[in-house]
Amino acid sequence: MIGGGYRRQILLFLLAICIPYFVLIVLSIRGVRQDSDLREKRQLAERVAAARTQLLARLESIRRGETRIDLKTGESYRFPEVVMVARVSEGKLLLPWETDPIQKQNKDSLTAAPFSTVVRQCEQAEFTTPGIGSTAGCSERVLAVAASPVQQAYARMLSARLSDAAGRHDKALEEMESLLNGPANLTDEDGVPFQLYAVQRLIQAGRESGKVLDSFKAAVLARPWASPAACYQVKLIADRLSASPVSAELQPRIAALIRLSEQAEALAVDWARVGLRPRTKAWISYGDDPWLLGFLADGATVVAVWQKDAAAPVEAANSVRFVDARVANSEPLGDTFPGIRVIAAAPTGLPTRNDDTFERRLYYFALLLVAASTIFGGWLLWRDLRREVVVSKLRSQFVSSVSHELKTPLTSIRMMAETLQLGRVNDEATRAEYLETIANECERLSRLVDDVLLFSKMEQGKKTYRLRPIHVESVVNGAVRALEYPLRTEGFCLRTRVENPLPLVRADADALQQALLNLLSNAMKYSGEAREIDLDVQSEDGRIVLRVTDRGVGIPREEQARIFEKFYRAPTSENQTIPGTGLGLALVAQIAKAHGGRVAVDSAVGQGSTFSLFVPVEEDHESHPGD
Fold it and tell me: Which of 41, 108, 160, 412 could be cross-linked to 172 through a Cys-Cys bond (beta carbons 3.0 to 4.6 Å apart)?
């Protein structure tokens, strides 16, 4: 478990690194989002500006006098978006059928004398003194005074009506059929083409010939607009021809004419409230199916443009949608278009700026780098904490083990010294045995102290080795003599086999003997019930190998890689009862490394262990002289 001090370190780490890191992540994500929002707003502003410029350019091309139609031939407006062109006089809007020069000419012609006088007399006789006699000769008199085409058309329509009243229906239909051949711009005082009257009468008589239908189609398509009376007449005829393919074909056009007429009349009524000022570049939206209204350069002519038709290519090009000013979350289109706003549609195919992409990638890279650094720092801290916990635990075990290791020989020395001091031993042999035991326990204490001091010097980097050519046999003999008493006391049999001759090695004799003593002491500790230890010394491939073999408890394979770590003892049940400091093998490994060699272990649980200490031979002395 991790102690309270380490918990505080982790908490400090979280406070010092993790919390700022998460704050940085939040701020970075917020920055990325704000940057994205700003970029979207910038793109929206650019798209709105482009839409405004393109729409204004389109409308300005219409404004520059390119909206007229040839009223003599009935050609449509040059721009299909144009609905109508109307005049403003004395603050009132005059609709096209009110200012149409041909319609005014027709009206003047129909009211001119003597034609109007004869027509009035015949119509008065027709309605005030009914009868065939009262209207006899009217048709001929009207036709006789009809000088212009419109007067002739009106005379034939009057003749057809009088013939119907007299029961001469065939004559009436002949007159109506003759009207089909006249031009579509011949209209009565209300702007209704005479062709439409003829078509209606012939259809009522069941004569829906191709010529009749063609005349109806020509009358509907003749002008981009129609007077309210003409629209009403067209609607009546279309209803009678509802089953005809021609009616289905003309239905969209008829609906458009009626919608235009109704909205134009509404505009004329509301003109004072529209607020469009002459000689300005403003375009005002009007109507449920909105028109864009603007003055031409003369300041007296208003042009109406279908907003949806003019705006459609601009909307498609800029991924925007023009809406009414009442729509929420919309952007204004500027003073040029009061009452018109724009909504940005989802952009498709818009180019992404390279610097925006670079900034976004830089944000993400920085976040990734900070995350990696934090995770790596956390891992390092966790590893160091675990290492410190393990080392702390091992040090605690080391202190306990050293205390025990020191206490045991000191107790023996004190007990035997006090016995000798009190004179309780009279036998010389027993006294000599006590003295030998005291000497061996002192030597044991000395080895333990030497181990601790040697390890301390190694840890501080202060340990120096006096390397010189030596005979390994002398090191082996010294180690065996040092352990002779404990081996004999505990009943061990040490079999020593030394190859002869052996080459010299360059080593520190004391350190090498210390390493061999540690290996032999370990073999004694972990032999268990077995009491046989083998020490083999031989030359192999330019190295001297000292092998210590016991037949004891053995070491688990998964623990063999760690037994040379300082303070480490394999967590086995046997180690719980066997005293030790965990320094012996660590010192052996350090000494072997300092001599340019190494130490290895070969062990199996329950079958014992073999430790091999490899020391390089002296290069200039392959062997020492014989005896």
Answer: 160
pLDDT attached to residue 72: 44
Which residues are bridge partners to 537 per DSSP? 498, 546
Q: Which 3 state secondary structure label does DSSP give 267?
A: helix
Q: Which amino acid is at 179?
A: L
Residues 338, 282 contacting (CB under 8 angstroms):
yes
For strands 493-498 and 532-540, give the pairing.
parallel
- The residue ranking higher by pLDDT, 450 or 243, is 243
Torsion angle of C-alpha atoms 166, 167, 170, 171, degrees rounded to 10: -10
| 344 DSSP β-pair partners | 320
Tell me the sheet residues that pair with 600. Answer: 612
Q: What is the mean pLDDT of residues 298-313?
A: 88
For the cut 50, the answer to whether the pLDDT of residue 135 exceeds it is yes
Domain architecture of the chain: domains with CATH: 101-270 (1.25.40), 465-616 (3.30.565.10)
Sign of the dihedral through C-alpha 477, 478, 480, 481: positive
Structure tokens at 105: 């000419």
Contact at 8 Å (CB) between 617 and 505? yes
In angstroms, the CA 226 to CA 232 distance is: 10
Which helix (DSSP H) or strand (DSSP E) does residue 81 occupy?
Answer: none
- For residue range 210-231, what is the model confidence (pLDDT) as tens digits? 888 888 888 888 888 888 999 9
Closest-CA residue to 478 (of 502, 456, 447):
447
pLDDT, tens digit, for every residue of 255-286?
988 999 999 999 999 998 988 888 888 899 99
What is the C-alpha separation between 177 and 263, in angstroms, rounded?
34
527 close to 492: Cβ distance less than 8 angstroms: yes
Tell me the pLDDT tens digit for each residue of 53-82.
998 888 888 887 655 544 444 445 678 888
Say how far apart CA 294 and CA 531 lie, in whole Å: 118
Sequence-distant (6+) residues with CB within 8 A of 177 are 198, 202, 211
Whole-structure pTM value: 0.53
